Batch of 4 targets.
Target 1
Amino acid sequence: MPRIPIAAGNWKMNKTSQEASAYAEAFLPQVKDFKKEIEIIICPPFTALATLASYFRNSPIKLGAQNMHWEEKGAFTGEVSAPMIKEWGCQYVILGHSERRHIFRETSEEVGKKVKKALEWGINPILCVGETLEEREKGETEKIVEEQLLLGLSDIPDAKASSIVIAYEPVWAIGTGKAATSEDARGVISFIREKLSSRFNVEISGDIRILYGGSVSPENVLDFLREDEIDGTLVGGASLDPLKMIKIAEETLRAY
Ligand code: PGA
């Protein structure tokens, strides 16, 4: 089966729920007729999930969270769990984003526990992997990506693996306006696909979608979408502007 392409927006720590309503009002009319051939996913802060869930109900837009804890409940002040985001209508959750790994010191083992828990709750994880500039310059890109990938997927049975999405996001390309070239992204993404096929059976690993993220914009998105190996994009800064996100979704629909 062909993999359904994804246009996902990661708002990071931006927009109150009131601002999210204004966004939904601008965004929804433009994308409400999009068919099933593409998945559009918006990942706002936790505080805007409930608001967006009510706008996106009965629309083709899916909702994702930006993080979650690996336990379901307990004494974890400030954390939010899989059943909580599920109740808010999340079908996706971004896990192991580089800002979580680098600013909040999340380890790949912790990310792996989160991936497992998300799948237990029927939430599709978007597992982010990517090297820093220093690691790239030392020629360690594949080593780092492989380590993050395998630890992130360490306890996942084949039966659940096909709903996982991987996002290759080189850290040096995030929020810098300096996207990777599509050739570079394709190279690492092909490497990820190869690792997935030795981790899971070939059929299942062939269902896993792999996205590129890092300074994606309406102007450069097509370069990535033209690569057969790239199944869509994870968009940060540009996703904050509904018009830009609409354009990215349209280009994604057109490209596949
Ligand atoms: P960016 O962020 O598009 O602003 O570079 C991407 C991301 O962090 O997911």
Target 2
Amino acid sequence: MSDYLETLYEGYGQSFRMDKLLHEVRTEHQHLVIFENPRMGRVMALDGVIQTTEADEFIYHEMLTHVPILAHGNAKRVLIIGGGDGGMLREVSRHRSVEQITMVEIDVTVVDMCKLYLPEHSKGAFDDPRLNLVIDDGMRFVATCTEQFDVIISDSTDPIGPGEALFSENFYQACRRCLADGGILVTQNGTPFMQLEGVQTTAGRMQGLFTDWHFYQAAVPTYIGGAMTFAWGSTDAAYRKLPLETLRQRFAGSGIVTRYYNPEIHQGAFALPQYVLQAIHKPSND
Ligand code: SAM
């Protein structure tokens, strides 16, 4: 048995015992490995960075879907950028109110291998008739897209390799253009304790584009370094000020049973710590 050492950070990281190597391949875009670990279940990594594990994926996927969709209240058209493992798609597809899901994933091998080795992530969601799966660069898609979406979710790798474009000024501008009136953009934006510069850069890019921009957080154990931030950009500041009772009614109405998300967690997730507020030049969580 050997260990898988994550190489995201210099001089700091996590290792996973690899009880069984299930698949390893250099795809057209990145190095992919899927293996079994006694604590985290099946684990997928891309270019040396842990992407998802069976044990804790629910936290990340529930928070990047139910928060924007329930805050919006009437999301019918959802765009997922990245998300090749299918977990984001699974959670979006649980919303009966959503009528159309477009998913733009650059690497078809990630989709194929995750369907095969991580079937619980997508749980059949790739067969959802509402899905339009596009194998392409998400940057190219939003730059040329003529459709509009109520919620856009960027579920990308870190800003290295193919994921780098999904943190660019052009990407946020293009996403803003593809948002319908009242739309919401959310993106995975790394762990601020380890990647504070990335949060600052995103903040600088979002504030000129969105009426309301902020971040929200959740601690995902295998995204090491503390809580992970999700960038939030919308054309309606009221979304972040929804009464708890409204969120409770919408959550109950969705009929969705979750393992992490609940309305109180939703509201609390937008409360950022001082060092993050200071880094993004926001005087408060308002
Ligand atoms: N949860 C992970 C995280 O927070 O880092 C992300 C998981 S998901 C597997 C990341 C996906 O983004 C991968 O399937 C990768 O192929 C995809 N991706 C990376 N760059 C992309 C791009 N430019 N366009 C579309 N998909 C991209």
Target 3
Amino acid sequence: MLASIKPLIILEPYMEKPTKKKRNICCIGAGYVGGPTMTMIASKCSEIKITVVDINKNRIDSWNSADLTKLPIYEPGLAEILSKVRNKNLFFSNDVKGAISKADIIFLSVNTPTKIKGIGKGKASNLEYLENSVREIAKYSKGHTIIVEKSTVPVKTAETIELLLNSSCLDNVNNEKKTYSVISNPEFLAEGSAIKDLEKPDRVLIGGKDQNAVKEIKELYLSWVSSEKILTTNLWSSELSKLTANAFLAQRVSSINTISAICEKTGANIAEVSRAIGTDQRIGKNFLNAGPGFGGSCFKKDILSLVYLCIYYRLDEVAKYWENVIAINNWQQDRISRLIIGNLFGTIENKKIAILGFAFKADTNDTRESPAIKISKNLLQEGAKLSIYDPKVEEEKINFELNSCFDDVACSIDKSKWKKFDSIEDTLKGADAVVLLTEWEEFKYLPWSNLFKLLRKPAWIFDTRNILDPNDFCSEGINLWINGIGEYSN
Ligand code: UDX
Ligand code: UDX
């Protein structure tokens, strides 16, 4: 007799599953955050219709451009995914009113720059754009709407949003009551690796009071992110976590940059020090690359926002602590400018200096807060002529940045003092120095022995990113300075 075969019961861990509800999402702000984030959600949730709106018509036109090289932002892998979902379940439009009125969920991805006037000037975030968007939502939304703060905002902003929404919550047309749930779901993507960060996030953070709304947003991410990576918190923890994450990351960059200066004085090598400390699991190996200082739209703005929060709550020592992370960043940019001038015999009047890289990091066309801005302005102020090359940054953006006002550097720059070139050879022709500021892959393998001929000797190469191979630089009349090592001699 055959023994009866018992069915084998396999106990699988409980997995939360997405419900794949049909939903209409509107995202206000088609920038570096809104564009890639909505592209990823659209590609992972085909049942959801997403409309990304923006008040800037040119931006929307660029997002809709048939030529994918004309997208408003350069981000590796973005164009490929976008081409699969655009005009299927992802739309870019200027019709803010229409998109709001149809939306169940609205993501706020407008910019929140540091205030340049009034109370909190130079520290507090300017919430003007966010407020304008919320007022539009109050006017045009229908029924119940979940509002998601994607933009980085000061702690307690959700309270302001709720106040604004609740003071105008009657639908004028239908005489129906409108209701809202405000959720914080900060973005942790880094430019240049945004697609990878969105596809495989270390965590997704969702903060909110209304647990149904938190669940809805969680279900969206469950389409491709496992539930243990989705953290839910209260609203304020979520808002503060975003500021804290950026402040900690920026602090690491400032810390390693102080050590790079000590390395140059002592004969230690920053790359070796970074490797040695990074193998300690408690420290970890990421964010230990010395450079010309951190840039990007977030780090400085978010630390300033944290500082403002501390001052508001009279935590002056804490404010000073974080302010110093920015002070070190400014110092690093000035230190590099000074040592360039020093090595060129103390004067750079009418000398030609080649700038390699204007983006704030590799793999992006974003120049916001790029260290290249301050260093270039410092050099121009000392009388240098700059030739600039960046594989992705357009001349218009460089012009805008060089004419921006901050610190004590000159606001406007005479256009005859700098020129953007499309080839490295043209950029280097006749230059007394080359300053490498962005770690673009193509800069790591340049044919230096050919390029040296183009330079006026004695010439200097300043590698602020520590990416060049010193063995390529044993040539008469060529001097090499590497960040965290100093003047290199074979
Ligand atoms: C984002 C976040 O929103 C910001 O808080 C974070 O700190 C940095 O990243 P980002 O996407 O990088 O901003 O900004 P940006 O590329 O400037 O895009 C914002 C978009 O919002 C712009 O295209 C702007 O035109 C749009 N906008 C602004 C609106 O559509 N409506 C407004 O009222 C204001
Ligand atoms: C940052 C955060 O990483 C991201 O989570 C948040 O959502 C937005 O702000 P981003 O500014 O796009 O992202 O780039 P990031 O890679 O953090 O670099 C910021 C700056 O630090 C760049 O200028 C970069 O060159 C510099 N950096 C970074 C260093 O100088 N050394 C390092 O080791 C790492």
Target 4
Amino acid sequence: MPDINQLSAMRNYFNSGATKLYSFRIEQLKKLKQAVLAHEQDLYDALYTDLKKSKEEVWVTETGMVIAELNQAIQQLRQWMKATTTRTNLLNLPSSSHILKEPLGVVLIIGPWNYPFQLLINPLIGALAAGNCAVLKPSEFALATATIMKTIIKEVFPENYILYVEGDGAAVIPEMMNNFSFDHVFYTGSSAVGKIVYKMAAERLVPVTLELGGKSPCVVEQDANIIIAAKRIAMTKFSNAGQMCVAPDYILVHHSKKNELIEALKRSIENFFGTDAADSYNYGKIINQKQFNRIVNYLQDGTVLYGGKTNIDTLYIEPTLMDTVNINAAIMKEEIFGPVLPIIGFETMEEALKIIAINKNPLAFYLFTSSKTKEKVWLDSVAFGGGCINNASWHLTNHHLPFGGRGFSGTGQYHGKFSFDTFSHKKAVMKTPVWFDPAIKYPPFKGKLKLFKWVIR
Ligand code: NAD
């Protein structure tokens, strides 16, 4: 736990204005990029230790995403920082109106364990680009990765600029948030802890971004390309052994295509991970025993159609397909966050929407269909954070799209320019010349109503 003097030193450093300059920000982004590349192998090793991720998976979902964000920020920073001019309404003419992008100050970034590198460092890129100081709190459950991140951060940044704080989140975070007023808290993790963080922030009126969990439905319509659907669903559902915030949580498939989809999913799983995923280079492990036990319990909530093998010693849970799940059981009330995929048939859209409505505001929503009309109807009917048509989860890797949930799945958005915006205040400034000063704007107002109605409309 940092002592309050360390946080005050960060405040002083921010107040010095050093972090605001373009030259400073760009240099920090470039230094961070160099350091990440220099530690590429260490990160592969660490992420293998924590989650048994392959190098290739690490590049696609962790380091590569960070490098892509850094490249974009380095390329676009000057443009992002520019003040913009906007229109001025009739009432205020001939004033001019501008929006300045101002850093927020000292921000706190809290990360989870499932993509421990990317989900801590990507928000940091936005914070640096926007000219802030930041406290980084990684998850305590992906220790190997946390150790490398600590090395990187300490190598590159002084502690009064970027402070890396370890330890039990339940102790360290309240201690910091109750004793220091951060200018923003960016939290990624479970909804349960998100509520705790939100309450602490509210006490001091600290703005927050909450990137929470969710139960993301995946709808497969009668007219979907089933082979493609199965490949794309299996790919992201079982990536990182299902421990992905935007993984398809459960499938709602039109009854007429259910059996065909199940068979195609089985084939896809075997094509990707072989007949024994325990030996697969491409298949990960569960982070710890607590999560392992939680996921294994879901196997009782329906019929295992495929998979279901587990090994607590290696924290292995086989890619598993489930049928006849009990809609009232935990498996359909909680985010699964593991390699267990319920497959539920539906006849009408209304039936499917009722199931989706049990878990409001999913973080993501996926639809497989070849009909533009169905696409429109589904997109209009479900309130979700972000999603894909004829794909699953990949929207998250496009940094030109904002990423975030809504309501129960979170508040605020980031990635690319949206990260810069999240960590910047848009300061609105109107500049009024002194050569024009009409009497209409000053009392007495009596008799001016008609004129006001003409000007303000
Ligand atoms: P978690 O909520 O257990 O932990 C997240 C962070 O909160 C950790 O750094 C932890 O130290 C800290 N923390 C724990 N208890 C705390 C407390 N009482 N007060 C303050 N901080 C505390 O989440 P997790 O298990 O690491 O991550 C899994 C969850 O995160 C899933 O629900 C998943 O969907 C969600 N998630 C969301 C996104 C997203 O982008 N929306 C991304 C990844 C994970």
